[in-house]
Amino acid sequence: GLIENVGNYDSDLHSDGVAHAEAIAQHIAAGGNLPDHVFADPFMRCTHTADTMVSHFKEQQVYSGITHSHSDIDFTNFEVAAESTTTMRNEKEQHVWLIRYGKTAPGLIENVGNYDSDLHSDGVVHAEAIAQHIAAGGNLPDHVFADPFLRCTHTADTMVSHFNRLTNRGMKVKVEEGLTEWQVPSLLVDPEGMRTDPRTLDELVDIFDNLDESYECVNPQGPDRGKETEETSSGSPRFPETEDQLHERCKTSIDKILEVIDKDSVAIVSHAPCLQHLALALDGSQSPGASALGAWSLGGITHFSRLPGEAKWTLRSYSSTSHMPGEFRDGELGKW
Asked: What are the distances in angstroms from CA 167 to CA 66, 142, 160, 301?
């Protein structure tokens, strides 16, 4: 470290200082805008900081508002989504964050299980990183919704704990069955033919501290197909579920959630198949094949926003993992 009147006046960064430079770049990128230019003074510690930041920014190229980790994208003819703004009347921009949980223990294996695994200790760290990333962008959700499977509810509960430490608002997680796992055997039925159902709200409130016990699902689980009654709602989650039926269910769920929250902002924690179709619905796609939105990474965040009076949502990032630590940052681990 530099000591006045002693030296070293051109010292380089410590390894911690490189991590600090990465954290600075992450914080800037989390705000949704990247610098067009980076300037630095010629002393080693400043130039090294700037160089590390620029390396990070290159990894977070923004293409029509969508965050990519690839370096071969031609984004010269596209524009970055507009910066969050507030109108003259103080009406706030509305945000939707769609979030996949992080690492679980044990990890889910299709057609095998465990279909209701909890978060690994690393997954709790990932949930904290997700909350920090959202908060660093300057906007917080007014509501947090989660599906009732443990890994999603635990992620949402951890996020809400973080948000409440920042605001003292006493936010609670709304457990919504309409956000549940895709209703297919490969994600719910084990080799012995036993189907996994998530815990009830009453069971979950005994596990987690920040759940809204008074919340009533806007799109509750329906009876299995072939066992419908006159009271069965169109677009409810029912087993088994084709991809088109999943799309209808997710569109129904997000429409009803947005109706309930009115002009507020919301964070939603769910599973990759459901999140993909929630994103398709917000993107305006009428069917699964009508959009190019792709795979979803562990801990990935997709961010939509719209200005007051606008009906159309702007996609600001898709399955971004810039906030994820270590080997999860490139988004390849656990991609679905």
From this structure: 29, 11, 10, 22
d(CA 239, CA 227): 10
175, 216, 228, 232 from 200: Cα distances, Å: 9, 12, 21, 20
pLDDT score of 64: 30
What does the pLDDT look like over 283-330, one tens digit per residue? 987 666 666 678 999 999 999 999 999 999 999 999 999 999 999 999
Which pTM was predicted?
0.75
Residue with tokens 């549940």: 180
Spell out the SS3 assignment of 203-249: HHHCCCCCECCCCCCCCCCCCCCCCCCCCCCCCCCCCCCCHHHHHHH
Q: What is the dihedral of CA 132, 100, 309, 142, to 10 degrees?
A: -50
Would you state the pLDDT for residue 13?
86
- pLDDT single digits (tens) 62-117: 323 333 333 333 333 333 344 444 343 457 899 999 999 999 999 999 999 999 99
**Mean pLDDT over each residue of the chain, to the nearest integer:** 86
**Helix, coil or strand: residue 67:** strand
Cross-strand pairs, 104? 119
Does residue 162 sit in helix, strand or coil? Answer: helix
